Amino acid sequence: MRVLLGLCLVLLLGGCNRVHSDHPLFFPDASADAPRLRDGLWVIDNGDSADCRYDARKPVTRWPDCADWMLVRGGEVLGYDPPGKGDVTGVGEWTSLSVVLSAGDPPVLQIGMTGDGKVDYQFFGIEPTAGGAGAITAFASWPVMCGPPPPGGAMEGGKRRFVTLEPLPGLTVIDESSCTAADAAAVRNAAGPSRAWAGKEAGGARWVRDGYP
After folding, report:
1. Are 120 and 112 in contact (CB under 8 A)?
2. How many whole angstroms separate alpha carbon 170 and alpha carbon 32?
3. DSSP states of 95-164 as a string?
4. 172 pairs with which residues across the strands?
5. Residue 26's pLDDT band (cuts 50, 70, 90)
6. Is there a contact between 176 and 160 (Cβ–Cβ < 8 Å)?
7. pLDDT-derived band of residue 3, with 50, 70 and 90 as boundaries?
8. Residue 114 and residue 212 in one domain
9. CA neighbor of 173 nearest in space, from 192, 186, 185
10. Are 88 and 3 contained in the same domain?
């Protein structure tokens, strides 16, 4: 689904050594100077899209499949899944993710993903690269990680270990691939150093225009 985006710059369900939470740790800030993403159509810039060629001025319905996009609207991000082959209705489906952008150094983006009746929250450090603090129009992004990646081939209990051997303060390892955070402060503390560990999971996004398509 397109809403599984790009925004994480890899699928939300993928990626290892990331911080997760079963409840939100950041909440919308109504203050006038709170950072926000400008509402409208955004295009995703990541490694997979580097060789994608298209005219961003044209409707997204005319963009190639390699061009990932998202629609930002207030506290949510929307994506559209076109009808599949054999779907006689010809009607696709809009899907949304809840997002909260919290001020800080760096700012932290919280994304809530619903699946199997549960919500999984993941966190991303961002660096605004265009627009003001009140209306960001481009940013670099990377997942908040549990700590430095484990050495290649690390094992635990007969299973390959993908989560750090050295979790940062306030983070608790919950399985061989992820950890959870005690509070928002632990996520903020991990956001800065995580950038150096993100590798191919880092990416970015930029605003294109006010509306869809």
Report:
1. yes
2. 30
3. EEEEEEEE-SSS-EEEEEEEETTEEEEEEEEEEEEEEETTEEEEEEEEE-BSSSPPPTT-EETTEE--S-
4. 180
5. very high
6. yes
7. very low
8. yes
9. 186
10. yes
Which domain, by its residues, includes 170? 146-190
**Tokens linked to 94:** 């809009």
Residue at 30 is within a domain = no
Dmax (CA) of the chain: 53
| Domain match, 178 and 206 both | no
Share of the chain above pLDDT 90, in %: 48
Give the pLDDT mean for 47-73. Answer: 84
Rounded to an integer, what is the distance from CA 133 to the centroid of its chain?
A: 19
Place of tokens 């909440």: 27
| Nearest in space to 46 (alpha carbons), one of 201, 192, 197 | 201
In a domain, 26, yes or no: no
Length reported for the chain = 213
Distance in angstroms (rounded) separating the CA atoms of residues 11 and 9: 7
Q: Which residue has the tokens 């990377």?
A: 142
